[in-house]
Design brief:
The chain is mainly alpha-helical and 47 residues long. The protein contains two helices and no strands.
Length: 47
């Protein structure tokens, strides 16, 4: 089964990207990603 991109973030430079990656690896960042994915799959199921 082919992969489908469902979430993407872009940064203006490497410093911003590293800071964002570091945040996403924290507990709060993981909750953010989990919530966004949950909302995506919930909306998809409702269609």
């Amino acid at each position: 089964m082919p992969w489908k991109l469902i979430y993407y973030e872009a940064c203006t430079n490497e410093k911003d990207a590293k800071r964002r990656e570091k945040y996403l690896k924290t507990t709060q960042g993981r909750r953010l990603v989990k919530r966004r994915l949950k909302e995506y799959f919930y909306a998809k199921r409702q269609q």
